[in-house]
Amino acid sequence: MSIQSILNEKVTSAIHQAGIQEEFNPAVRASTKPQFGDYQVNGLMGIAKRHKINPRELATNVLTHLDLDNIAEKVEIAGPGFLNIFLKNEWLSSHISSLVQENTIKMTDQKKQTIVVDYSAPNIAKEMHVGHLRTTIIGDCLVKVLDYLGHNVIRANHIGDWGTPFGMLIAHLEDIESNAKNHQQLSDLDMFYKEAQKKFKENEEFANKARKYVSELHNGNKKIISQWKKLIDITMSQNQTLYNRLNISLSQENIMGESFYNHMLPGIVNDLLSKNIATKDQGATVVFLEEFKNRDGNPMGVIIQKKDGAYLYTTTDIACLKYRYETLKADRILYCIDARQNQHLQQIWAISKKANYISEDVSLEHIQNGMVLGDDGKPFKTRSGKTVKLLSLIDESESRAYKLIKEKNPTLSDAEITQMAKLIGGASIKYAELSKSRTTDYIFNFDNMLSFTGNTAPYLLYAYTRIQSILSKSNLNNSLEQKYKFIITNNIEKQIALQVAQFEDVVKTVAKDGTPHILCSYLFNLSGLFSSFYESNPILQESEEIKNSRLLLVQIVSIVMKTSLELLGIESLNKM
Ligand code: ARG
Questions:
Q1: From ligand 1's centre to the CA of 273, what distance in Å?
Q2: Exposure string (b/e) for 164-192, b if CB count within 10 Å is 16 or more?
Q3: Domain boundary among 87, 108, 131
Q4: Which of 332, 474, 475, 506 has a 20 to 30 Å separation from 154 between CA atoms?
Q5: What atom in ligand 1 is closest to the CA of residue 118?
Q6: In sequence order, what are the residues at sequence separation of 6 or more whose Cβ sits closer than 8 angstroms to the Cβ of residue 51?
Q7: ipTM confidence score
Q8: Where is the Arginyl tRNA synthetase N-terminal domain (predicted)?
């Protein structure tokens, strides 16, 4: 159990004994300043206010019932009614030793949930853009964190593989194939899409063929279906290359694209009509939502079927939500999507709840992300204004990483540097995404993300290799020396212990709020504390007892760092 939870329980029971029975939040937090102790209780003022009692009196009363004899050295009442808790070093060190076992960090069991994480979701026959890169990286980190906490996690890659453009795309694919130039042009998906669009606009015969193909696709014509599948395969195998290079855990098995829900759409529209949730409006089928107003202040109309019979992105997402609840039995669904799609999500959630497709208990969450910008503060594009190819972005990151490592460590062999550069190149892009608050826009800048100083992947990976070299000098690795005993002898060791103790709270916060940057800041702080420890605390020349205690601390930090990096989807290196 984390220290926060232990103290929370103790404080809660003392508050009960002080006569307060109804629900409250004692708000136990790690203190921000040493003079406030190691943990503080912030909730007493709020509770006192609600009960119209003097907060300092309540604090005094709670303190008399608070049993922290083994845990705390002292507890002080501060300010209007805070409690500052100063932990005992012996308790803290044995707590840490009980947390870290073998080479993992123990987590307190939680109720196991089925959690669907909707992320990446590129569109077929289009290049994945930097926006997709962001949801891919953030979504994959959340998947790893939720997995680590023991949940049943379902990765859902809701790819855009359906819709009227497929008629023109299939017609264009046919032209290309008959020209025997074959797949060559298909390596450039954006070009392929643009050419198809151009032909559709300019060539009447082509446009008619495209329309015919759309209806043949809907009617299940075998040849057209197989062309459609080919487009999906080509696009998704390019995307898979990207996933692999970035160590993203998505595979072809996780594809549950828009087309997967096609067969449900007519039923959904009929059902919404029969429940009087949808109405016919000028030939289209529309749901008017009271809770969303349009510009004129009237209820906003959400189209679920167009006049020509076509279904929409919204219709598919309603069916998809129903499926995730009924069939996948989701307790929680995380939509890792661009912030600009928030209204779309609010609408499909509202409609699905009205229609009882989903229970109120299911937690529906938009894990919004802001935009990726270039150095000029505008949406990230190439100099000529085109979408940036993600694979070439990774190439560039790797080659920059190669130069940096070679400068730092010229004695390494070329093969070694190449291998490290591969890892660091991808890790730097990922870490740059993960370490920023996901809701704000962020500037994509290679110099910053590949810097060896600051909160970056190279800095942390390098810090980790330094720890590995300390361990290997003592013939140790990440498997804990259980016979060593950890003793806190000074303040910096205590700070590290407190930080280690917070690992569980941090991981659970990331899982709850979908905020990987919290884990990144944690890792960065831990690594900073560790370097101050290492600079001021000799290890090998100390007495046997202290030497072993410090080596154990090094091992513990190493395990926490490695685990954190793994949760961020970053492989660690043993030397650099
Ligand atoms: N394919 C969409 C896009 O590129 C994202 C889909 C997100 N998931 C969803 N269930 N709508 O914008």
A1: 26
A2: bbbbbbbbbbeebeeeeeeeeebeebeeb
A3: 87
A4: 506
A5: 8
A6: 20, 58
A7: 0.99
A8: 5-87
CA 347 to ligand 1 center in whole angstroms: 14
If residue 273 lies in a helix (H) or strand (E), which one and from where to where? helix 265-274
Do 537 and 485 touch, CB atoms closer than 8 A? no
Counting Cβ atoms within 10 Å, is residue 42 exposed (0-12), middle (13-18) or buried (19+)?
middle
Residue 386 CB-density burial (10 A; 0-12 exposed, 13-18 middle, 19+ buried): exposed
CATH number where 74 lies: 3.30.1360.70
pLDDT confidence band for 178 (50 / 70 / 90):
confident
What is the identity of the amino acid at 52? K
In a domain, 322, yes or no: no
* Ligand 1 atom, smallest distance to 344 CA: 11
For residue 545, the domain's CATH number is: 1.10.730.10
**Cα of 185 from ligand 1 centre, angstroms:** 26
Question: What's the total number of domains in the chain?
Answer: 2
Pick from 40, 60, 87: which residue ends a domain? 87
- The span from the CA of 373 to the CA of 362, in Å, is 34
Q: Whose CA is nearest to atom 8 of ligand 1?
A: 158
Q: Which of 118, 236, 260, 337 to mutate to test the pocket of ligand 1 (most atoms within 8 A of CB)?
A: 337
Domain region containing 25: 3-87
Instruction: Please report whether residue 10 resides in a domain.
Output: yes
Looking at residue 188, its pLDDT comes to 83
CA-CA distance, 294 to 221, in Å (whole number)?
Answer: 41
Whether the predicted pLDDT of 181 surpasses 70: no
Give domain status of residue 396, yes or no: no
Confirm whether 227 is domain-assigned. no
Ligand 1 neighbours (beta carbon < 6 A): 118, 121, 123, 158, 160, 317, 320, 335, 337
- Average pLDDT rounded to a whole number, residues 462-477: 92
Across the range 496-519, mean pLDDT stands at 97
The pTM (predicted TM-score) of the whole model is 0.94
| String of DSSP letters for 169-209 | HHHHHHHHHHTT-GGGGGG-HHHHHHHHHHHHHH-HHHHHH
Calculate Rg over the CA atoms of the chain. Answer: 28
Taking only the tens place, the pLDDT of each residue in 73-102 is: 999 999 999 999 999 999 999 999 888 887
Number of Cβ within 10 Å of residue 321's Cβ equals: 27
Place of tokens 């198809």: 196
Separation of 396 CA from ligand 1 center, angstroms?
27
Q: Is the pLDDT of residue 182 over 80?
A: no
Q: What is d(CA 346, CA 368) in angstroms, rounded to the nearest whole number?
A: 12
> CB under 8 Å, gap of 24 or more: what pairs does 278-283 form?
278/304, 282/307, 283/307
